[in-house]
Design goal:
The complex is a heterodimer of chains A (about 240) and B (about 220). With about 240 residues, chain A is an alpha/beta fold. Chain A contains 9 helices and 10 strands. Chain A has helices spanning about 45-50, 70-80, 95-110, 115-125, 140-155, 170-185, 200-205, 225-230, 235-240; strands spanning about 5-15, 20-30, 35, 60-65, 65-70, 80-85, 160-165, 190-195, 210-215, 215-220. Chain A has a 6-stranded mixed beta sheet, sandwiched between helices. A 4-stranded antiparallel beta sheet of chain A has the order 2-1-4-5, covered by helices on one side. In chain A, strand 9 (about 210-215) and strand 10 (about 215-220) form a beta hairpin. In chain A, helix 5 (about 140-155) runs parallel beside helix 6. Chain A starts with 5 loop residues before the first strand and ends with a helix. Helix content of chain B is about 80%, strand content about 0%. The longest helix of chain B has about 40 residues, at about 5-45. The chains are: A alpha/beta (about 240), B mainly alpha (about 220). At the A-B interface, helix 2 and helix 3 of A face helix 5 and helix 6 of B.
């Protein structure tokens, strides 16, 4: 079997005396779409944020594309290969859409401005916002901003994308436009780890679903396993509340 | 009594020269203060705790004691310690710079803190280094936020430079005192000095207002 794209081994994360992750082990293969579900405060976002060391685990190993993140020089390298999409978009408000997208390719990859722009326009076309290249983030709707954020992450040509509740801050009518883009990426074979409350998306797109509660992965399997035949009582309870 | 315009007219050159000196100290002090403040605000973000404590002490000491006392310390007390006289100009600029640096560093700190944490995370998640994220993402945004308080600091500094008159340094206020000692025109000269200060501070606040409009704050 190939080396996994993302691997977490016995990851523990504490904030002071509060232990948020209590030994997480997981492995994401290339091309997989892993959806993490669970109640709020369960630690699912923290798992995601440990994957690119936005949170540094208290103990345990995170290995991305064969590089262990406990070595400092690997952290930036991994971040160029693993993109992240945030709940609140986190676009740079002082830059146009185009500038948001070309900044990192230019400064980190050293790509020329022209080449970066050309690539950015392709990506904007892909997320359906080619006409918004010169707009500022505040002039866009939430759904449009999130699509720009996805394009920005894609501009680094990442090997995997992490989504931290990408639709939770959106008005309901804008959720689908973001999910559609994500589905398209999944169809193209992008490796994705998605923390979300969108169970429909999980059922339709996920290759694997993880249920997390109180800092542990309590159940994992295909969407059918987890949604239609859950074994763990806490999974059943959680699903009964949200479905 | 009557207002003797002639006293002002005869000394207008001296007064304007004093005003020029005041502007000079202000620009130098805020300039150095800006550099000190930039360094201190960056050092405050360091993971090295003793450095942060040192910076905190600096800010607290120079914000917590009067500028007048700081001027005395540098001009009168420090020479006793080092056994060497300090030039009034250097003492004036040093005292004002160090004092201004403490305020400016707090302005920077507040400016940087006003930027959402997600901006740093977004930058870092794209593979930008901490320095690159600061330079291209955090600073340009923080800069807009600090223009108004920095303008206030500039105005406050311009007025506070009048304190260096006590060590005999001839800026605008000291120049006024000297002219009065010669002409006894206290009312005329202090009025003129006030008008000149007001003209300078109003110019600065107009300029800051222009910057705010330009950067659409």
């Amino acid at each position: 079997m190939d080396t996994p794209m993302i691997q977490m081994v016995d990851v523990v994360k504490s904030f002071g005396s509060n232990t948020v992750l209590k030994g997480v082990n997981l492995s994401v293969a290339q091309g997989e779409v892993v959806v993490i579900i669970g109640p709020s405060g369960s630690g699912k976002s923290t798992i995601l944020r440990c994957m690119n060391y936005l949170e540094q685990p208290t103990s345990g190993d995170v290995i991305v594309d064969g590089m262990n993140l406990n070595r400092k020089e690997n952290i930036n390298k991994v971040r160029t290969e693993v993109g992240m999409v945030f709940q609140r978009f986190n676009l740079f408000p002082h830059m146009t859409v185009l500038e948001n997208i070309i900044l990192a390719p230019k400064k980190v990859r050293g790509i020329s401005a022209d080449e970066a722009k050309e690539r950015a326009m392709e990506l904007l076309k892909k997320v359906g916002l080619a006409d918004k290249a010169d707009a500022y983030p505040e002039q866009l709707s939430g759904g449009q901003q999130q699509r720009v954020a996805i394009a920005r992450a894609l501009a680094m040509r990442p090997k995997a994308l992490l989504f931290d509740e990408p639709t939770s801050a959106l008005d309901p009518e804008m959720v689908h436009e973001v999910l559609d883009v994500m589905k398209k990426l999944a169809d193209e074979g992008m490796t994705m780890v998605v923390v979300t409350h969108e169970m429909g998306f999980a059922k339709e797109v996920a290759t694997r679903v993880l249920f997390v509660d109180e800092g542990k992965i309590l159940e994992e399997g295909t969407p059918y396993d987890v949604f239609d035949a859950p074994k763990n009582d806490r999974t059943k309870l959680f699903l009964s509340k949200i479905l | 009594m009557s207002f003797d315009w002639l006293i002002i007219w005869n000394n207008i050159g001296l007064l304007l020269h004093g005003a020029l000196i005041t502007i000079e100290i202000t620009i130098l002090s805020v300039g150095f203060g800006f550099c000190i403040g930039l360094f201190v605000s960056m050092a405050n973000l360091s993971h090295f705790k003793p450095l942060r404590i040192l910076m905190k002490c600096y800010v607290e000491i120079f914000r917590g004691t009067p500028l007048l006392v700081q001027i005395f310390m540098i001009y009168f007390a420090l020479p006793v310690l080092i056994g060497h006289r300090i030039d009034p100009f250097i003492a004036a600029v040093a005292a004002c710079s160090i004092n201004s640096g403490a305020y400016v560093s707090e302005i920077f700190r507040a400016g940087i803190q006003s930027i959402d944490k997600g901006q740093m995370e977004a930058g870092r998640s794209l593979g930008l280094s901490w320095g690159q994220t600061m330079r291209y993402i955090i600073w340009p945004q923080a800069f807009k936020a600090i223009i108004p308080p920095l303008g206030n600091e500039f105005i406050a500094m311009l007025k506070d430079t009048s304190l260096v008159s006590v060590i005999g340094f001839e800026e605008l206020t000291r120049t006024g005192q000297l002219i009065i000692a010669r002409t006894y025109g206290a009312f005329e000269i202090w009025s003129a000095v006030s008008v000149i200060y007001l003209a300078m501070t109003l110019s600065i606040s107009r300029f800051v207002a222009y910057l705010e409009r330009r950067y659409k704050i």
